[in-house]
Amino acid sequence: MATMEARVPTAEKAPAPLVPQVAEAPHDVVKEKSVISPHPVPTPLEKLDVSKAPPSPPLADSKIPDPPGKRTSLGPTDRDVALAQVEKEKSLSFIKAWEESEKTKVDNKAQKKLADVAAWENTKKAAIEAKLKKLEEELEKKKADYAEKMLNKVALIHKEAQEKKAVVEARRGEEMLKAEELAAKHRATGTVPKKLGFLGF
């Protein structure tokens, strides 16, 4: 019985620590303490305090303002418009360069044609002037030859005229001598000539 009594008090003393077990009550809390998170778990009141919350990383779709001095990022539509504008300016620049190149080619071609025409004109004019000069030289030579021939003819005519004059003078001298001789004869004989030229008999 003594042993039983001794055991009973020990059995009665065993349920005494039930109060501390109530303090330890939820097993979930004990399990949470065993796993220590790097950040303390905020209480509902701490969740409402925005100033204590760490900054959240930015979302992919949200726009981050560019630092001053840099161009702001463009959206897809703005980027397409900007690219289209760049392509348009590039095309216009290319077209302008092509236009100036074509105009330069046309101008150079026209200048070459004009130079060819001027060279052709100068060649033709030089050929005609050379031909004209040759004709003038030929005409001068022909003129000199013709003048010489005319002078020769004039000299020949003058010579013939002198010869004819000489014949006339000679005949006149002969006839004068003959008249003198006949006159002397008539004087000597005392006869009168039958025919007198000045009297018309």
From TrEMBL:
InterPro entries (alphabetical) = Remorin_C, Remorin_N
Top-level taxonomic group: Eukaryota
Basic and acidic residues compositional bias, start-end: 25-34
Chain segments annotated as coiled-coil in the UniProt record: 118-152
Q: Where are the transmembrane segments?
A: none
Q: Which residues form the Remorin N-terminal domain?
A: 27-86
Annotated region (Disordered) at 1-79
Alphabetically sorted, this entry's keywords are:
Coiled coil
Question: What Pfam families does this protein's entry cite?
Answer: Remorin_C, Remorin_N
Annotated ranges, domain Remorin C-terminal: 90-195
Describe the family membership recorded for this protein in Swiss-Prot or TrEMBL.
Belongs to the remorin family.
Please name the PANTHER family in this protein's record. OS02G0117200 PROTEIN, REMORIN-LIKE
Q: What is this protein called?
A: Remorin
Q: Tell me the organism.
A: Rhododendron griersonianum
